[in-house]
Amino acid sequence: MADRSSVHPPGRPGRSREPEAMADLVLIALIIAVFAVLGLVVRAVERL
After folding, report:
1. How far apart (Å, rounded) are the C-alpha atoms in residues 10 and 34?
2. Where on the tree of life does the source sit, at the highest rank (predicted)?
């Protein structure tokens, strides 16, 4: 039972996947932001 209590924190049963999903969304958002910034940098360099 100790293993199950470590997997599921007390007071939050069945919601152990939320932090992972949020982390995935944050990573995707960061990747999109990086590509957007790179695109703006390329356009700025081309104008110079």
Report:
1. 37
2. Bacteria
